[in-house]
Amino acid sequence: MTILTVILAILAFGCLVIVHEFGHFMAAKAAGVHVLEFWVGMGPSFAHKKIGETDFKLCILPFGGACVMEGEDTEQDQPGTLAGAPIGWRALILAAGALMNFLLGFLIVLILVLPQTEGTEPVIQGFADGFPSQGESMLMKGDRILSIDGYRVLLTSDVTTGLSLGTDTSYDIVVQRNGEKKELHDVKLEPAEYDGVQRYGVDFTVKQLTVVDKVKNAVYRSYDYARLVWISLKQLVSGQVGIDQMSGPVGVTDVLVQTAQSSMTSFFLLIAFISINLGVMNLLPLPALDGGRLLFVLIELIARRPVPRKYEGYIHFGGFAILMLLMVYVTWQDILRLLGAA
């Protein structure tokens, strides 16, 4: 682990938060909402400069940031306040941070995909010698895999993901064969040694990539990243994954450092994944998150009157307190894992 990779990882993680807050900032300015403060980092500030109505601050801790708008948690709804902005603008301002994270993640993936000249598609080109699940009622050469146990396959990498989500080694697979969809049941697929390599034994078609293919691949991979976040959340709620397996800023930075040491391409792909992850998590309808605030906007739209701001503020404050406790817990778990690995 070098100082350079640590600094790179911290800066990268910090940039994702800044991009998120900058999304709120730009949407607020477009709506005519006064932005009082814009923080880069958290904690006490060591430098600041006021530009127009906004005080831009650099803070000691490199994680986090904030865009402080007038009238966020108050009853005042005068022009220039968040509460006084039209409901459509308020929704856009609240969603803009997550949208910027989605856009950044997609652009990183696209930039990494554009130089590629060829890639694979989930169309079976052939099988390794001894592969068992071949035939009319099983897999056949030329089949395009569409889904595995209901998990939609868009990219070749989705095949491995779909198989990893299964509970055994038999799968229900939907393929496109001769222009028609065909459902295959109880297809046996498990890693085995083929030609001295441990793999599933299915070979996929390699094709030359057009610009359209590259853009499509970037869209699909970005969608996959968001989908993996939802899958992880479902596993957390169902108990398949424990809270002690979650990571906070310390754990994420450690993974970024390790990835940067092995491959810069993998490092930037991980940045893209984390950016999209932040976007998805912030849109969850939980108090203190952007999604929680959007939920109150939706309630106002349906009820045609807002929930009293003080009660909304109490709910967000309680949610923030719980979020901070969770952050302390996962950060402590990160530290324990680091000490155990040391």
From TrEMBL:
One Pfam short name: Peptidase_M50
Broad EC category: hydrolase
Main localization of the protein described in the UniProt heading: membrane
Membrane topology annotation: Multi-pass membrane protein
EC number assigned by the record: 3.4.24.-
Keyword terms of this UniProt record: Hydrolase, Membrane, Metal-binding, Metalloprotease, Protease, Transmembrane, Transmembrane helix, Zinc
Transmembrane segments: 91-114, 267-288, 314-332
Subcellular location: Membrane
Domain Peptidase M50: 9-326
InterPro entries reported for this sequence: Pept_M50_Zn, Peptidase_M50
GO-annotated molecular function: metallopeptidase activity
Named cofactor requirement(s): Zn(2+)
Homology family: Belongs to the peptidase M50B family.
Identification of the protein by name: Zinc metalloprotease
Gene source species: Butyricicoccus intestinisimiae
